[in-house]
Amino acid sequence: MAELTVAEVAYAAGILDGEGCICITKQRSDRHHKRGYEMKLLVSIGNTDFSLLEWLRARFGGSIYSYSKSGNGRKPIGQWHLDSRKAIPFLKAVLPYLVIKQAQAELALDFQVGRVHTNRLTDEEDKLQVAQYLQMKKLK
């Protein structure tokens, strides 16, 4: 992550609070656990103004995806994504400036920082990830 001003980080926090999503998702995976899916952290911000999404990507990394809404005359929608470990520096930077999504960001950091990166989870690790997933759903 590039050297940013306080104003830029606070601005990004405001965008995340208003337009963003912090979630723990389930992704199909046969290699990680007997349950058939793995948990993954995802931070995203959606907007029709792609210059905003490019601004985020230039400062915090990540990827931009585009999709169209059905209906005539609708603008394409873009999604800026940061996932897994890539989201940690962003969340740590914006955390002090978040208002609405502060608890979600704290839980996301606990989830990702405490994450075990092996092919198999112990039952205890699995239960913790499921509990964090359910807690995140409650916070939304």
Any chance you could write out the topology, listing elements then pairs?
Elements: H1 6-19, E1 20-28, E2 37-47, H2 50-60, E3 63-67, E4 77-83, H3 87-94, H4 102-113, H5 123-139
Antiparallel strand pairs: 1-2, 2-4, 3-4
Helix pairs in contact: 4-5
Shape summary: globular
| CATH superfamily annotation | Homing endonucleases
Going by helix content, strand content and strand pairing, the class is alpha+beta
Any idea how many domains?
Answer: 1
What fraction of the residues are assigned to beta strands by DSSP?
15-25%
Outline of this structure?
The chain is α+β, with helices and mostly antiparallel strands and 140 residues long. The protein has helices at residues 6-19, 50-60, 87-94, 102-113, 123-139, and strands at residues 20-28, 37-47, 63-67, 77-83.
Explain what the structure shows.
The chain is of the alpha+beta class. The protein has one domain: Endonuclease I-creI (Roll), CATH 3.10.28.10. It is built from five helices and four strands. The protein has a four-stranded antiparallel beta sheet. Helix 4 runs antiparallel to helix 5. The longest helix is centred in the C-terminal third of the chain and has 17 residues, at 123-139. It is globular, with a radius of gyration of 16 Å.
